[in-house]
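Wait, can you check?
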Amino acid sequence: MSTNFDIYSAHFGLNERPFSLLPDPDFLYWSAAHKRAYTMLEYGVLTRAPITLITGEVGAGKTTLMQYLLKNLEADLTVGLVSNAHGGRGELLRWVLMVLGQTAESQSDYVTLFAQFQKFLIDEYAQGRRVVLIFDEAQNLSRESLEELRMFTNINSNKDELVQLVLIGQPELRDIISRPDLKQFAQRVAASFHLPNMDADTVHAYVAHRLEAAGTEGNLFSRAATDRIFDVTGGVPRLVNQLCDLSMVYAYTAGDVIIDIKVVDDVLSDGAFFGYSEDTEKEKPDT
């Protein structure tokens, strides 16, 4: 079965597909906002912040930043990545033990599991290793789970906390943590950043960067085309990738090597970019 990569790669002189929807640290475009977000991630880890918080809209590049961080962490860290954890008290702890390579017996009660977790942290600390737990899609954590995470940060040895938390999620995560009943949790957040959507200039540079990373020389998209893509997507990287990918398919079909605004508009008028209509664009709030 052919893929978009197989369809147009040779036509545009590509080494690989430039606008895949899968997070890929090798294609990360370091916009000013992404640099600041990554700096805060590093700052949180290096300064042993109890909780580091990174938020952004769906598709803003949070997971890609996280994966880049994972590739560049120091060797003396033990890292557990929990993606989209859910469940009540105790279930989160089982998720955590699992990602740390520990066995959580089904018959074990919460006290036993917590003692096991605490022993693991102390053992790692004795070996000169710090434990960092990263929670992706953290906006799905319940209040009960967030309170449980706060209790994790109370585990310490002398002046050193034995576990650090990194929470990555959508904008509503900040609203959740700002609630009065989570005041104690919020007070543990020592590093945070909200990743905004890209502006028009950044979209143009972002598209050029991904094309260059895939093996092309120069931007195959006209400025008018990238401005149109920005207008339609609001600068959300994942949506930019979708529309660029489809535009390249359309340009290949027409035998074009440059994607101009007409190509983008053809994609939109055909309804190939799912969810787009002129009415929904008119209703879209300013970014």
Q: What stands out?
A: The chain has a mean pLDDT of 87.
